[in-house]
Amino acid sequence: MKHQLEKLESIMEKENINSIILTGPDNIEYFLGVRTIADSPLLLYYEKKGEPKLYVPLLEYYRFRDYLENTNVKVYAVSKTLKPSDAEVIDKSFREIISSLSKKERIGYDKEYTSPLTSYVLSALGEKIVDISKHISKYRMIKEDWEIENIKKAVDITEKGILEMVNNLSETITETELTGFFEFRVRRAGIDEYAFAPLVLFIPNNSYPHHLPTNNRLGKRNLVLVDVGVKYGGRCSDLTRMIIWGRKNKEELKAIEAVNEAIDNVIDKGQPGMKASELAEVAVKTLEKYELTEKFIHGLGHGIGILVHEPPYIRTGSETVLEPGMVFTIEPGVYFAGKYGVRIEEDVLVTKKGLKVLSEDLERVFIA
After folding, report:
1. What is the pTM of this model?
2. What CATH number is given for 145-367 in this structure?
3. Coil, strand, or helix at residue 154?
4. Domain topology for 2-141
5. Is the peptide bond before 312 cis (omega within 30 degrees of 0)?
6. Which of 33, 232, 270, 273 lies 20 to 30 Å from 122, alpha-carbon distance?
């Protein structure tokens, strides 16, 4: 954690400021290494040459205090009513704490990372805010070795969960029941948090990019889209695979071929120094050959780390330049509303030589 806080010190030096406020829960988790839960208001205040101060609701106080016990971070409970004798309680509201910081001349803030306290900070500090979001995003985009290893482990466990679903298909199984096989397998592997709610979708639910599992039954013939991910050691995975069940359909096979080719072309041509938009265009041009461009209705990919969706975003118009250490998804998809959809998703690492697929041990399409 000391190493992480040194990153904040570096930001203060770069921006010539003496203090930083963070309220984005994912940023607080990134810099302090303590999992943030639900949508509780959290505020980290770090002043140059001072000790970091973390303000949390009373119900979160003991967990943060105990996790950060052997660090130099001082944890305070924010409460104007309940004041246990064994807690370090601040008799102020979060709004009052933020207002007290308005006396500072210039103060760094993670402006692009929203939280329940964002509006309070913006209104209280106004023009005194120096937006440090770009610095934080840069740190979070370039993964350290330990982060990459945890993502690899998350990918490996996710792959095992997908295989568990493939091995338990039957005509009578529903989307929600099949989801349960994934959840059971990854929980057995020690996973205590999903990267996002699993998407296990049969026709026609997979014709929509996002749709939660239902009691829709598989039947004798179907096309299954599985989009799942877990969180291991605080870092996420995100994989999508297709399963052909029963009789094959030529139109669906063509869509699968197009999406597969788009992924292959992106992986072959991806290099550090490219803009994210250039990489996205590779997929667009591939799908154009199949006359499927207008069915590709989302970006090509997104970064994965503390969150399953975070910078860099791989989409047309993005000026982000790819750098070694970035980890993101490649997930072209085509959707025929009300009929069916095809999406395949790989997790890749940018290296000095190109794109390394972290999820290559699992075939992209299963024929069951």
Report:
1. 0.95
2. 3.90.230.10
3. helix
4. Creatine Amidinohydrolase; Chain A, domain 1 (3.40.350)
5. yes
6. 33
